[in-house]
Protein backbone atom coordinates (compact mmCIF):
# COMPACT_ATOMS: atom_id res chain seq x y z
CA UNK A 1 0.00 0.00 0.00
CA UNK A 2 2.81 2.40 0.94
CA UNK A 3 4.79 1.61 -2.21
CA UNK A 4 1.70 2.51 -4.28
CA UNK A 5 1.41 5.84 -2.51
CA UNK A 6 5.11 6.57 -3.12
CA UNK A 7 4.77 5.64 -6.80
CA UNK A 8 1.65 7.80 -7.17
CA UNK A 9 3.35 10.76 -5.44
CA UNK A 10 6.37 10.63 -7.76
CA UNK A 11 4.11 10.20 -10.79
CA UNK A 12 2.08 13.29 -9.77
CA UNK A 13 5.25 15.37 -9.27
CA UNK A 14 6.74 14.24 -12.59
CA UNK A 15 3.48 14.94 -14.46
CA UNK A 16 3.16 18.40 -12.88
CA UNK A 17 6.78 19.14 -13.78
CA UNK A 18 6.22 18.31 -17.47
CA UNK A 19 2.89 20.19 -17.62
CA UNK A 20 4.29 23.33 -15.99
CA UNK A 21 7.43 23.20 -18.14
CA UNK A 22 5.23 23.11 -21.25
CA UNK A 23 3.03 25.93 -19.92
CA UNK A 24 6.08 28.10 -19.18
CA UNK A 25 7.26 27.63 -22.77
CA UNK A 26 3.84 28.26 -24.33
CA UNK A 27 2.36 31.08 -22.24
CA UNK A 28 3.62 34.65 -22.18
CA UNK A 29 3.19 38.03 -23.83
CA UNK A 30 3.29 36.01 -27.08
CA UNK A 31 1.37 32.73 -26.80
CA UNK A 32 3.03 29.92 -28.76
CA UNK A 33 1.14 26.72 -29.70
CA UNK A 34 2.46 23.49 -28.15
CA UNK A 35 2.91 21.97 -31.62
CA UNK A 36 5.23 24.86 -32.53
CA UNK A 37 7.17 24.31 -29.29
CA UNK A 38 7.66 20.64 -30.17
CA UNK A 39 8.87 21.55 -33.67
CA UNK A 40 11.39 24.01 -32.22
CA UNK A 41 12.68 21.58 -29.57
CA UNK A 42 13.10 18.82 -32.14
CA UNK A 43 14.96 21.34 -34.36
CA UNK A 44 12.40 21.04 -37.11
CA UNK A 45 11.11 23.99 -39.11
CA UNK A 46 9.57 26.75 -37.02
CA UNK A 47 9.06 30.48 -36.97
CA UNK A 48 12.32 32.36 -36.41
CA UNK A 49 10.57 34.68 -33.95
CA UNK A 50 9.12 31.77 -31.99
CA UNK A 51 12.47 29.97 -32.01
CA UNK A 52 14.23 33.03 -30.63
CA UNK A 53 11.62 33.49 -27.86
CA UNK A 54 11.65 29.83 -26.83
CA UNK A 55 15.35 29.00 -27.10
CA UNK A 56 16.85 32.27 -25.88
CA UNK A 57 14.30 33.47 -23.31
CA UNK A 58 11.69 31.00 -22.10
CA UNK A 59 13.49 27.64 -22.18
CA UNK A 60 16.60 28.70 -20.21
CA UNK A 61 14.36 30.57 -17.76
CA UNK A 62 12.09 27.55 -17.24
CA UNK A 63 15.06 25.21 -16.77
CA UNK A 64 16.60 27.67 -14.30
CA UNK A 65 13.35 27.82 -12.30
CA UNK A 66 13.19 24.01 -12.20
CA UNK A 67 16.85 23.46 -11.27
CA UNK A 68 17.14 26.30 -8.76
CA UNK A 69 13.73 25.54 -7.23
CA UNK A 70 14.79 21.94 -6.65
CA UNK A 71 18.11 23.03 -5.17
CA UNK A 72 16.44 25.53 -2.85
CA UNK A 73 13.96 22.95 -1.53
CA UNK A 74 16.84 20.55 -0.91
CA UNK A 75 18.81 23.27 0.92
CA UNK A 76 15.78 23.88 3.15
CA UNK A 77 15.48 20.16 3.91
CA UNK A 78 19.18 19.96 4.89
CA UNK A 79 18.90 22.99 7.19
CA UNK A 80 15.75 21.59 8.83
CA UNK A 81 17.68 18.37 9.41
CA UNK A 82 20.75 20.19 10.75
CA UNK A 83 18.86 22.39 13.23
CA UNK A 84 16.06 19.88 13.96
CA UNK A 85 13.66 22.75 13.26
CA UNK A 86 10.74 22.61 10.78
CA UNK A 87 10.90 26.32 9.88
CA UNK A 88 14.65 26.54 9.28
CA UNK A 89 15.52 27.55 5.71
CA UNK A 90 18.01 29.61 3.69
CA UNK A 91 15.69 32.64 3.75
CA UNK A 92 14.63 32.57 7.42
CA UNK A 93 18.19 32.00 8.68
CA UNK A 94 19.53 34.93 6.65
CA UNK A 95 21.78 32.72 4.51
CA UNK A 96 20.20 33.87 1.23
CA UNK A 97 20.50 37.51 2.32
CA UNK A 98 24.18 37.06 3.17
CA UNK A 99 24.82 35.52 -0.24
CA UNK A 100 22.86 38.36 -1.86
CA UNK A 101 24.98 40.99 -0.09
CA UNK A 102 28.34 39.64 -1.28
CA UNK A 103 27.06 39.06 -4.84
CA UNK A 104 25.70 42.64 -4.94
CA UNK A 105 29.10 43.97 -3.80
CA UNK A 106 30.88 41.98 -6.52
CA UNK A 107 28.33 43.00 -9.16
CA UNK A 108 28.56 46.71 -8.34
CA UNK A 109 32.38 46.54 -8.29
CA UNK A 110 32.43 44.81 -11.68
CA UNK A 111 29.92 47.28 -13.19
CA UNK A 112 32.05 50.18 -12.05
CA UNK A 113 35.12 48.68 -13.74
CA UNK A 114 33.29 47.43 -16.86
CA UNK A 115 34.09 43.78 -16.03
CA UNK A 116 31.94 40.83 -17.10
CA UNK A 117 31.23 38.34 -14.33
CA UNK A 118 31.17 34.63 -15.13
CA UNK A 119 28.63 32.28 -13.55
CA UNK A 120 31.37 30.69 -11.46
CA UNK A 121 32.44 34.03 -9.94
CA UNK A 122 28.81 34.72 -8.99
CA UNK A 123 28.45 31.30 -7.34
CA UNK A 124 31.76 31.72 -5.48
CA UNK A 125 30.74 35.19 -4.22
CA UNK A 126 27.34 33.89 -3.09
CA UNK A 127 28.98 30.92 -1.34
CA UNK A 128 31.28 33.26 0.63
CA UNK A 129 28.28 35.33 1.75
CA UNK A 130 26.26 32.22 2.62
CA UNK A 131 29.10 30.76 4.67
CA UNK A 132 29.65 34.02 6.60
CA UNK A 133 25.98 34.16 7.63
CA UNK A 134 25.89 30.42 8.29
CA UNK A 135 28.89 30.88 10.59
CA UNK A 136 27.04 33.57 12.56
CA UNK A 137 23.95 31.35 12.84
CA UNK A 138 25.99 28.36 14.06
CA UNK A 139 27.82 30.54 16.60
CA UNK A 140 24.48 31.79 17.92
CA UNK A 141 23.10 28.25 18.04
CA UNK A 142 25.86 27.40 20.55
CA UNK A 143 24.77 30.33 22.74
CA UNK A 144 20.98 30.38 22.22
CA UNK A 145 19.19 27.25 23.38
CA UNK A 146 15.70 28.10 22.14
CA UNK A 147 15.32 27.34 18.42
CA UNK A 148 12.64 30.04 18.08
CA UNK A 149 15.17 32.67 19.17
CA UNK A 150 17.71 31.26 16.73
CA UNK A 151 15.24 31.72 13.88
CA UNK A 152 14.54 35.29 15.03
CA UNK A 153 18.30 35.95 15.10
CA UNK A 154 18.60 34.57 11.56
CA UNK A 155 15.78 36.82 10.39
CA UNK A 156 17.54 39.83 11.96
CA UNK A 157 20.79 38.93 10.15
CA UNK A 158 18.77 38.71 6.94
CA UNK A 159 17.27 42.16 7.49
CA UNK A 160 20.70 43.69 8.15
CA UNK A 161 22.17 42.12 5.00
CA UNK A 162 19.15 43.19 2.93
CA UNK A 163 19.40 46.77 4.23
CA UNK A 164 23.08 46.97 3.28
CA UNK A 165 22.33 45.42 -0.14
CA UNK A 166 19.57 47.98 -0.80
CA UNK A 167 22.01 50.75 0.15
CA UNK A 168 24.57 49.36 -2.35
CA UNK A 169 21.97 48.98 -5.11
CA UNK A 170 20.81 52.58 -4.58
CA UNK A 171 24.27 53.87 -5.49
CA UNK A 172 24.81 51.58 -8.50
CA UNK A 173 25.19 53.02 -11.99
CA UNK A 174 21.88 54.28 -13.42
CA UNK A 175 22.17 52.15 -16.56
CA UNK A 176 22.52 48.93 -14.57
CA UNK A 177 20.35 49.70 -11.56
CA UNK A 178 17.16 48.18 -13.06
CA UNK A 179 18.71 44.73 -13.59
CA UNK A 180 20.45 44.84 -10.22
CA UNK A 181 17.25 45.93 -8.47
CA UNK A 182 15.22 43.11 -10.11
CA UNK A 183 17.83 40.55 -9.13
CA UNK A 184 17.97 41.81 -5.53
CA UNK A 185 14.19 41.24 -5.20
CA UNK A 186 14.36 37.72 -6.69
CA UNK A 187 13.78 36.89 -10.35
CA UNK A 188 14.44 34.11 -12.87
CA UNK A 189 14.52 36.56 -15.79
CA UNK A 190 17.57 37.10 -18.00
CA UNK A 191 18.89 33.54 -17.71
CA UNK A 192 21.42 32.43 -20.36
CA UNK A 193 22.51 28.97 -21.42
CA UNK A 194 25.88 29.59 -19.74
CA UNK A 195 24.01 30.21 -16.46
CA UNK A 196 21.94 27.06 -16.95
CA UNK A 197 25.02 24.89 -17.58
CA UNK A 198 26.74 26.19 -14.44
CA UNK A 199 23.68 25.75 -12.19
CA UNK A 200 22.92 22.27 -13.55
CA UNK A 201 26.51 21.17 -12.90
CA UNK A 202 26.69 22.57 -9.36
CA UNK A 203 23.16 21.66 -8.27
CA UNK A 204 23.34 18.24 -9.93
CA UNK A 205 26.60 17.23 -8.23
CA UNK A 206 25.47 18.49 -4.80
CA UNK A 207 22.03 16.85 -5.12
CA UNK A 208 23.61 13.48 -5.95
CA UNK A 209 25.89 13.94 -2.94
CA UNK A 210 22.88 14.66 -0.72
CA UNK A 211 21.07 11.56 -2.02
CA UNK A 212 24.11 9.41 -1.23
CA UNK A 213 23.89 10.71 2.35
CA UNK A 214 20.34 9.36 2.77
CA UNK A 215 21.36 6.69 5.28
CA UNK A 216 23.50 9.00 7.51
CA UNK A 217 20.71 11.62 7.41
CA UNK A 218 18.22 8.99 8.54
CA UNK A 219 20.49 8.07 11.48
CA UNK A 220 21.09 11.75 12.35
CA UNK A 221 17.33 12.44 12.45
CA UNK A 222 17.04 9.76 15.15
CA UNK A 223 19.29 11.87 17.38
CA UNK A 224 22.99 12.66 17.56
CA UNK A 225 23.64 10.01 20.23
CA UNK A 226 21.98 7.33 18.09
CA UNK A 227 23.94 8.47 15.00
CA UNK A 228 27.23 8.33 16.95
CA UNK A 229 26.41 4.82 18.17
CA UNK A 230 25.82 3.80 14.55
CA UNK A 231 29.39 4.85 13.75
CA UNK A 232 28.65 8.27 12.24
CA UNK A 233 31.17 11.05 12.85
CA UNK A 234 28.57 13.63 13.91
CA UNK A 235 30.85 16.69 13.84
CA UNK A 236 32.12 15.93 10.33
CA UNK A 237 28.59 15.14 9.17
CA UNK A 238 27.25 18.45 10.51
CA UNK A 239 30.01 20.33 8.64
CA UNK A 240 29.06 18.45 5.47
CA UNK A 241 25.39 19.42 5.90
CA UNK A 242 26.40 23.08 6.30
CA UNK A 243 28.61 23.02 3.20
CA UNK A 244 26.06 21.26 0.98
CA UNK A 245 23.14 23.48 2.05
CA UNK A 246 25.27 26.62 1.64
CA UNK A 247 26.39 25.65 -1.88
CA UNK A 248 22.77 25.04 -2.93
CA UNK A 249 21.52 28.30 -1.37
CA UNK A 250 24.48 30.20 -2.90
CA UNK A 251 23.82 28.80 -6.38
CA UNK A 252 20.18 29.92 -6.22
CA UNK A 253 21.01 33.39 -4.89
CA UNK A 254 23.83 33.94 -7.41
CA UNK A 255 21.46 33.61 -10.36
CA UNK A 256 17.96 34.41 -9.06
CA UNK A 257 18.53 36.51 -5.95
CA UNK A 258 16.78 35.62 -2.68
CA UNK A 259 13.70 33.40 -3.12
CA UNK A 260 11.54 33.15 -0.01
CA UNK A 261 9.65 30.26 1.64
CA UNK A 262 10.47 27.56 -0.96
CA UNK A 263 13.09 25.97 1.30
CA UNK A 264 10.66 25.86 4.24
CA UNK A 265 7.34 24.99 2.63
CA UNK A 266 8.27 22.41 -0.04
CA UNK A 267 9.84 19.75 2.26
CA UNK A 268 6.67 19.75 4.39
CA UNK A 269 4.33 19.62 1.39
CA UNK A 270 6.32 16.73 -0.07
CA UNK A 271 6.38 14.92 3.28
CA UNK A 272 2.58 15.21 3.41
CA UNK A 273 2.26 13.96 -0.18
CA UNK A 274 4.50 10.93 0.41
CA UNK A 275 3.23 10.18 3.91
CA UNK A 276 6.78 9.44 5.06
CA UNK A 277 9.92 11.23 6.27
CA UNK A 278 12.39 8.63 4.92
CA UNK A 279 15.31 10.60 3.42
CA UNK A 280 15.87 8.17 0.54
CA UNK A 281 12.38 9.08 -0.76
CA UNK A 282 12.14 12.63 0.57
CA UNK A 283 15.37 13.90 -1.04
CA UNK A 284 14.42 13.26 -4.72
CA UNK A 285 10.80 14.22 -3.97
CA UNK A 286 11.97 17.54 -2.45
CA UNK A 287 13.92 18.33 -5.60
CA UNK A 288 10.93 17.55 -7.84
CA UNK A 289 8.57 19.43 -5.52
CA UNK A 290 10.81 22.51 -5.49
CA UNK A 291 10.99 22.45 -9.30
CA UNK A 292 7.20 22.24 -9.60
CA UNK A 293 6.65 24.96 -7.00
CA UNK A 294 9.04 27.44 -8.63
CA UNK A 295 7.82 26.76 -12.18
CA UNK A 296 4.26 27.41 -11.02
CA UNK A 297 5.19 30.59 -9.13
CA UNK A 298 7.36 31.91 -11.98
CA UNK A 299 4.51 31.37 -14.46
CA UNK A 300 2.22 33.45 -12.24
CA UNK A 301 4.93 36.10 -11.71
CA UNK A 302 5.31 36.52 -15.49
CA UNK A 303 1.68 36.40 -16.56
CA UNK A 304 -0.59 37.56 -13.72
CA UNK A 305 -0.10 41.29 -14.32
CA UNK A 306 1.58 41.15 -17.73
CA UNK A 307 3.46 43.12 -19.03
CA UNK A 308 4.46 43.99 -15.44
CA UNK A 309 6.46 41.17 -13.86
CA UNK A 310 6.30 40.39 -10.15
CA UNK A 311 9.35 39.34 -8.18
CA UNK A 312 9.44 35.58 -7.66
CA UNK A 313 9.60 36.01 -3.85
CA UNK A 314 6.29 37.90 -3.90
CA UNK A 315 4.51 34.88 -5.39
CA UNK A 316 6.35 32.18 -3.42
CA UNK A 317 5.52 34.05 -0.19
CA UNK A 318 1.78 34.01 -1.03
CA UNK A 319 1.80 30.19 -1.30
CA UNK A 320 4.62 29.37 1.11
CA UNK A 321 3.79 31.59 4.09
CA UNK A 322 0.44 29.86 4.87
CA UNK A 323 2.30 26.52 5.03
CA UNK A 324 4.75 27.96 7.58
CA UNK A 325 1.89 29.42 9.65
CA UNK A 326 0.15 26.03 9.62
CA UNK A 327 3.36 24.27 10.72
CA UNK A 328 3.80 26.63 13.69
CA UNK A 329 0.15 26.27 14.78
CA UNK A 330 0.31 22.49 14.39
CA UNK A 331 3.52 22.26 16.46
CA UNK A 332 1.99 24.41 19.21
CA UNK A 333 -1.04 22.11 19.37
CA UNK A 334 1.21 19.05 19.52
CA UNK A 335 3.18 20.53 22.45
CA UNK A 336 -0.06 21.48 24.24
CA UNK A 337 -1.36 17.94 23.82
From TrEMBL:
<keyword id="KW-0813">Transport</keyword>
<comment type="similarity">
    <text>Belongs to the binding-protein-dependent transport system permease family. FecCD subfamily.</text>
</comment>
<feature type="transmembrane region" description="Helical">
    <location>
        <begin position="310"/>
        <end position="329"/>
    </location>
</feature>
<keyword id="KW-1133">Transmembrane helix</keyword>
<keyword id="KW-1003">Cell membrane</keyword>
<dbReference type="Pfam" id="PF01032">
    <property type="entry name" value="FecCD"/>
</dbReference>
<feature type="transmembrane region" description="Helical">
    <location>
        <begin position="91"/>
        <end position="111"/>
    </location>
</feature>
<feature type="transmembrane region" description="Helical">
    <location>
        <begin position="117"/>
        <end position="140"/>
    </location>
</feature>
<dbReference type="InterPro" id="IPR000522">
    <property type="entry name" value="ABC_transptr_permease_BtuC"/>
</dbReference>
<feature type="transmembrane region" description="Helical">
    <location>
        <begin position="281"/>
        <end position="301"/>
    </location>
</feature>
<protein>
    <submittedName>
        <fullName>Iron ABC transporter permease</fullName>
    </submittedName>
</protein>
<keyword id="KW-0812">Transmembrane</keyword>
<feature type="transmembrane region" description="Helical">
    <location>
        <begin position="59"/>
        <end position="79"/>
    </location>
</feature>
<feature type="transmembrane region" description="Helical">
    <location>
        <begin position="147"/>
        <end position="172"/>
    </location>
</feature>
<dbReference type="InterPro" id="IPR037294">
    <property type="entry name" value="ABC_BtuC-like"/>
</dbReference>
<feature type="transmembrane region" description="Helical">
    <location>
        <begin position="192"/>
        <end position="213"/>
    </location>
</feature>
<feature type="transmembrane region" description="Helical">
    <location>
        <begin position="239"/>
        <end position="261"/>
    </location>
</feature>
<keyword id="KW-0472">Membrane</keyword>
